[in-house]
Write a structure and sequence with these properties.
The protein is α+β, with helices and mostly antiparallel strands. The protein has two domains: 1-33, no CATH class; 41-85, no CATH class. Helices cover 33% and strands 16% of the residues. The strands form two sheets. Strands 1-4 form a two-stranded antiparallel sheet. It has a two-stranded antiparallel sheet with strand order 2-3. A hairpin with a 6-residue loop joins strand 2 and strand 3. The longest helix is centred in the N-terminal third of the chain and has 25 residues, at 6-30. It is rod-shaped, with a radius of gyration of 27 Å. The chain crosses the membrane at residues 6-29.
C-alpha cells in the first residue's frame, strides 16, 4: 500500500469537513423553529412612562411590538413591577 502524501491528507480532511458541513446544514434547514414575541401586555405593564410634565403615556400592547405615542422625546421610564419582567 502506497503512503499518502501531505497534499492528499489535506485534501481528504477538507473533503470530510465539507461533507460533514453539508450534512449538518441540511439537518438544520429541515428543523422548524418557532418564534414567539416576548413583548406581552404584562411586560408593558411593568413600566410607567411619563412625559416631562408628569403626564402618564399609555402604550398599546395589542401591536407587535407594543407602541407608545408621545408628542415629545423627553420622557421618564420607571420600572414599577420587576416580577412582570421575569419570564
Amino acid at each position: 500500500m502506497k503512503a499518502l502524501g501531505i497534499k492528499q491528507v489535506i485534501t481528504i480532511i477538507v473533503v470530510l469537513v465539507l461533507v460533514v458541513g453539508l450534512v449538518v446544514g441540511i439537518y438544520l434547514v429541515q428543523k422548524q423553529q418557532t418564534l414567539k414575541s416576548k413583548a406581552t401586555t404584562s411586560f408593558v405593564n411593568a413600566f410607567e412612562i411619563k412625559d416631562s410634565n408628569g403626564n402618564v403615556i399609555t402604550c398599546d400592547a395589542s401591536t407587535n411590538p407594543p407602541t407608545c405615542n408621545t408628542p415629545t422625546l423627553d420622557i421618564n421610564v420607571k420600572v414599577i413591577d420587576k416580577a412582570l419582567l421575569v419570564p
